[in-house]
Amino acid sequence: MTDISSLLKEARPLYFARKKRRQRFKAVGTFGVCMAVAYLSAAPFINVSKTDEMTTLYTAFYEQKELNADNLYGNVNWESDIPLDDYGLVAVL
Length: 93
What we know:
Blueprint: H1 2-42, H2 51-63, H3 69-73, H4 78-81
């Protein structure tokens, strides 16, 4: 009987340490889930800093029938602005 009581005395701090660790783990997990839910519920209200670029991309991808470089970058004269070789590829200088 004394062996069992000594084992219980030895195991008691380990049991309570494990119990505290589990409670701490649950609390951190619950806090993380709450923060994630709060962030995701507030995400639609966060201001987008580049609204003009986002509007341009949205119209280019969803409202235009044809998507080409002129829609996104304006009129670019590719032959005069970028040096091309005989095959039409970008020339390496």
